[in-house]
């Protein structure tokens, strides 16, 4: 099968382009993965911060209601209710950042918190009114409800932190694999370029050197030359053309020698209409 030097060069460059394309594809995939993981990291970090703030506000609200129950200070009650409004505001802000499936858990927390507020206000009112027995009876339910609220916030926070850690691990993995594969492909591309350069340069150098040696010998009158280039490309065509030329010159030299020796019966057949020596 004949394959020209041009085709070989094009094939080599296409191979290098393919390696470059793979490097680009791997890099693009890695960058997309890193970008998506970074978005998740930012998002989950924000969620975690909101949940930590909500938990701190719930604890503070609980403490203000407890102070009101113990001191009967209306200022403590006002601060408890104000803190409660902050809890609701912070929770609604977080809710706007969550996906639909995550909002259900937060909505359940809001419902539970509303029940907690009603119970703790009722407990505090009993204590303020002097109904210690009634307040003590409600205290256990308040503590159980409050513990449940804090527990649900901890669960949501742990889930957010787990997603955050997963995104960080994904980013590290994407960076590692992208770097490794890019380096490997770069090495393959370099080796391919070196092999292509060595093979082509060796073929060109060998073919041209053989033809040059034969041409120099013929120029010095030595027609006993041989051009051994067997490749199926332009170099092979050149080698075969040189071989035919050498055979032609040998034939003409032999005919000339016989004529010089007095043999006038020599018949020289022209190879073409343009054969100057044959005609």
Structure description:
With 279 residues, the chain is mainly α. The chain has five helices and no strands. It has helices at residues 5-71, 74-95, 100-128, 132-219, 234-260. It is rod-shaped, with a radius of gyration of 46 Å. The model has no long low-confidence stretch (mean pLDDT 84).
Q: Tell me the helix content.
A: over 70%
**Which spans have pLDDT < 50 for at least 5 consecutive residues?**
none
Q: Strand share of the residues?
A: under 5%
Number of helical stretches of at least 4 residues: 5
Strand runs, count = 0
**Can you give the mean pLDDT?**
84
Kindly name the structural category.
mainly alpha
Radius of gyration: 46 Å
| Net shape | rod-shaped
Topology as H/E string? HHHHH
Kindly report how far apart the N and C termini lie: 37 Å
Major pleated sheet:
none
- Oligomer state equals single chain
């Amino acid at each position: 099968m004949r394959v020209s030097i041009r085709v070989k060069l094009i094939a080599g460059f296409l191979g290098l382009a393919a390696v470059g394309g793979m490097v680009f594809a791997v890099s693009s995939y890695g960058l997309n993965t890193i970008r998506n993981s970074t978005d998740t990291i930012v998002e989950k970090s924000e969620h975690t911060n909101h949940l930590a703030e909500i938990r701190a506000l719930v604890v503070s609200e609980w403490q203000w209601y407890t102070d009101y129950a113990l001191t009967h200070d209306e200022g403590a009650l006002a601060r408890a209710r104000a803190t409660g409004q902050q809890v609701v505001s912070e929770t609604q802000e977080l809710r706007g950042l969550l996906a639909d499936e995550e909002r259900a858990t937060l909505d359940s927390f809001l419902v539970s918190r509303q029940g907690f507020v009603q119970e703790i206000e009722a407990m505090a009112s009993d204590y303020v009114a002097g109904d210690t027995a009634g307040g003590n009876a409600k205290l256990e339910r308040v503590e159980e409800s409050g513990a449940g609220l804090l527990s649900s916030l901890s669960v949501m926070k742990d889930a957010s932190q787990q997603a955050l850690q997963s995104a960080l691990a994904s980013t590290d993995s994407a960076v590692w694999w992208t770097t490794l594969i890019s380096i490997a492909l770069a090495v393959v591309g370099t080796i391919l370029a070196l092999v292509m350069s060595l093979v082509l340069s060796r073929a060109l150098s060998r073919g041209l050197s053989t033809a040059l040696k034969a041409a120099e010998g013929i120029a010095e009158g030595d027609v006993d030359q041989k051009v051994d280039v067997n490749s199926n490309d332009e170099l092979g065509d050149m080698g075969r053309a040189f071989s035919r030329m050498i055979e032609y010159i040998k034939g003409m030299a032999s005919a000339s020698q016989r004529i010089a020796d007095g043999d006038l019966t020599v018949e020289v057949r022209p190879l073409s209409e343009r054969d100057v020596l044959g005609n």
